[in-house]
Amino acid sequence: QVQLVESGGGLVQAGGSLRLSCAASGRIFSINRMGWYRQAPGKQRELVASITSDASTNYADSVKGRFTISRDNAKNTVDLQMNSLKPEDTAVYYCNAEGVTTLLRNYYGMPYWGKGTLVTVSS
Hints:
single chain, mainly beta, 12 strands, elongated
């Protein structure tokens, strides 16, 4: 079983910065892809950014140039540095992990999710 725990959300003024962190725990050997999704009130959950174990990244167009995703494969952590925040970035941000290989070398392709952390950007 894999658990994801996010931290770092909060209230920030427009133009400010926040850093989200996520730690994966469990009997993990490796994680293929980790990422951040967000869900604003009344909207569907959307991909914000993702990063593979070989550091290939993918960003939503709306955050390119403002957000940076990074990970530590040894610690099974993923961070999201968010700069130049806008009110439209307000959402619950969820950590995601896909393609988990356990210490027993069992592979699980389904996604794992954290409980989410709220980011509120005031205008």
